[in-house]
């Protein structure tokens, strides 16, 4: 038997789809919470159909839904709503990221539930929050990346680019997760539940703090510089003579001097009037880039990395996905673990943060409605009652 986990005994009911809410609740499940995922009968969460890259299953779905129980309910059916209300009697947390206003119209707002469920924590995740002029706008990850300004600072000088993964969804999911943890701690002190209102715009807006302050009081925003840093140089990708690419980053003047002496073999360059401060190096980055590339052209990728390591200059390889799957550091730290799924076992990364007191929960990804009958029987329904719900297409 494994050691106790932080959220053992906590029950989370989630009316979730796509990424933000499922990513939040998967973190809760990792810590031991029982997460009951309510899905549409038949197809289930529409994220199940995004692609078929993981043995016929969707890449987004297997990432965000392990260790959960799937309960199918047609929430437009009053009999299904009765089941959900029975389930909430003993729940600790309700999470939802339905269309704006949908949960409230079903009587599932914090205001409607708190009188009869005073200890229940209700977490609503939406694009823009529960009030304000944008409250009813639909929101998807790319749209919020645009609204929050991320696209304006990401890409090349010629073209903005979205981040390659779901940054707005991940940000909202993580703030929902930490807010729920905080609400559970607060409930332990006060005995009362909380209402949590998480906005994707506000979550990603928080992550935009540096570029916002960089552009304070109408100053020019950070330029789009592809994979290079917008305000520190040299910091970014540089080609080696064998066609490889090395990422490197300098953070201070001490590192700049060592970089010139050990890596470039030109100690005098450190005091060159064009490059003697970061602001000057940034302003004259085109000239400095040519000098660096000229030196690197005579070396292989491994030789450049060796010199950077000798100088203790931070560097990295630009891995593709195959490189990350095979990353020696993840292998050495045994970060991959097998989890079950409807299509068999698949590898999954352990959650970040190794704790010496417990192991993370790493249980299977559920099939649509896999746990429906078991959950209904927990609620006291017999065979006839379950069949009646099936006949009414409530489950």
Radius of gyration: 26 Å
Tertiary shape: elongated
Strand order of the largest sheet: 3-2-1-4-5-6
Assembly level: single chain
Main sheet record: 6 strands, parallel
* Mean pLDDT value: 96
Helix-strand category: alpha/beta
The arrangement of helices and strands along the chain is: EHEHEHEHHEHHHEHHEEHHHHEHHEEHH
C-alpha end-to-end distance = 34 Å
Beta-strand content estimate: 5-15%
Number of strands: 11
Helix content: 25-40%
Number of separate helices: 18
Q: Low-confidence stretches at least 5 residues in length (pLDDT < 50)? A: none
Descriptive overview:
The protein is α/β, with parallel strands linked by helices and 395 residues long. Helices cover 38% and strands 13% of the residues. It has helices at residues 20-30, 59-64, 78-88, 102-105, 110-113, 141-147, 150-153, 167-190, 200-207, 209-214, 253-263, 278-283, 285-296, 301-310, 321-325, 328-332, 372-378, 383-391, and strands at 11-15, 34-39, 68-72, 93-96, 121-126, 195-199, 235-239, 245-249, 314-317, 336-339, 346-349. The longest helix has 24 residues, at 167-190. The model has no long low-confidence stretch (mean pLDDT 96).
